[in-house]
Write a structure and sequence with these properties.
Elements: H1 3-7, H2 16-35, E1 48-51, H3 83-87, E2 111-116, E3 119-125, H4 128-141, E4 146-150, E5 155-158, E6 161-164, H5 171-180, H6 182-186, E7 191-203, E8 206-221, E9 224-230, H7 234-248, H8 251-263, E10 273-278, E11 281-286, H9 290-304, E12 306-312, E13 317-322, H10 331-336, E14 347-354, E15 360-366, H11 374-385
Antiparallel strand pairs: 1-6, 2-3, 3-8, 4-5, 5-7, 6-7, 7-8, 8-9, 10-11, 11-15, 12-13, 13-14, 14-15
């Protein structure tokens, strides 16, 4: 529904917050009416995603990487093109980047959902380049648009998309939408989601597929509303992975994985992680082997708001940009005072190395590689440790 049509439902004298409440009230009333009878559509509560390109510009989180349609389906010109550059609207050309060979394959039968604490991944008997095209098809089938894809790094990132709960596409709702787009506006949940897919060669002909969720929500602030980050949702990540299993063709494995998750089975204890002194400064000590810690850390950094721009496994460095909550927006201001230990939209390096005791040590550095020190380093590392 257009803004002019929406305004006819509420008083123009209302402030923006009250207008939002009124719209949500109409939304709830209409949902209850349409959901009360079976012939109007089921009561399914699964999230349905609407791509951000069909949403008004102001409905996209402006401080949380508002999508730029020009960056979709573009291969970076260099392997080191960062998410930060793409966030700023710098579009890289496809020149000079070899496109992976995307093979048309039958269904994949040998796959298993594995879990380590709150981190889950799908292990599939196939090479990353064999899965690449199928995963892109899967993303699009979810109603999501691809914002960034880097086949050499095995990375696919989606645009922000509207999460809409309890809305069916068929029945009378579908007729309303086709006629006027009425429910498209009033049913806006005020929630946005994006997903990051990472493919890692897992050896022996297997590929490990990780999915990271990022969330945003619209919240009242004085006389208006603003977008702010909300915590990553491991349950949404698990749901996306089990849906991917179905898409790749193994219904039996997908159903078993859902049953195991519901029953709490196969939950391994996450590796011990604590803040310690290492080489004279604070570090995060993880009791794990290097390969395991490296892969797990990539997911946890994204969840922490330290979005991975690039990585160099040979050097043991993740290049990240902090896109967590800005100061005075809740969590960090309550935890650390007026300003947090990290600067919003600033670039950092996360170094990973194996210590003499066999444990893995994670340290934080500025974008020039200088190690963070003192309370700032300790507080910033605590953000990552919490994800373990």
């Amino acid at each position: 529904m257009s803004e002019s049509a929406a305004s006819s439902l509420v008083s123009p004298n209302m402030n923006p917050v009250m207008q939002r409440i009124a719209i949500l009230f109409f939304s709830a009333a209409i949902s209850g009416l349409l959901g009360g009878c079976s012939w109007f559509g089921g009561g399914k509560d699964e999230p349905a995603y609407r791509s951000a390109d069909s949403t008004a510009l102001l409905e996209v989180p402006p401080d949380l990487s508002a999508p730029n349609a020009d960056t979709s389906y573009v291969l970076p010109e260099e392997r080191s093109v960062s998410a930060r550059k793409l966030e700023g609207g710098q579009t890289a050309g496809a020149t000079g980047v070899p496109s992976p060979k995307e093979e048309v394959l039958p269904d994949f039968e040998d796959m298993k959902l594995e879990r380590d604490g709150s981190v889950m991944w799908l292990r599939v008997k196939a090479r990353p380049e064999q899965l690449w095209g199928r995963i892109k098809q899967f993303v699009e089938a979810q109603g999501l648009r691809i914002r960034r894809q880097e086949p050499q790094k095995g990375l696919i990132e989606t645009h922000w998309a509207e999460r809409r709960l309890g809305v069916e596409e068929g029945g009378i709702r579908g007729m309303f939408e086709k006629a006027s787009g009425f429910l498209d506006t009033v049913k806006d949940s005020g929630l946005r989601d994006k997903f990051i897919f990472r493919l890692h060669d897992d050896g022996d002909g297997y590929t490990a597929i990780f999915v990271t969720h990022r969330g945003a929500e619209e919240v009242p602030q004085e006389s208006t509303t603003v977008w702010q980050s909300r915590p990553s949702d491991p349950a949404l990540e698990a749901e996306m992975l089990t849906d991917l299993m179905l898409f790749l063709g193994n219904r039996g494995a997908a159903e078993q994985a859902k049953q195991d998750l519901a029953a709490g089975k196969a939950v391994q204890v996450a590796p011990e992680a604590r803040i310690v002194d290492f080489q004279g400064q604070a570090a995060l000590r993880v009791q794990s082997d290097y390969d395991h810690a490296w892969r797990r850390l990539g997911v946890l950094l994204d969840r922490s708001g330290l979005i991975v721009d690039d990585q160099d496994r040979n050097k043991g460095i993740y290049y990240v940009t902090f896109l967590g909550k800005e100061e005075n927006q809740g969590f960090f201001s309550r935890l650390f005072g007026k300003s947090g230990p990290l600067t919003f939209e600033e670039q950092y390096q996360v170094h990973v190395q194996k210590g003499d005791d066999g444990a893995i040590y994670v340290t934080l550095h500025d974008k020039e590689g200088r190690r963070l020190t003192g309370d700032k380093a300790r507080e910033a590392l605590e953000i990552i440790r919490e994800q373990f």
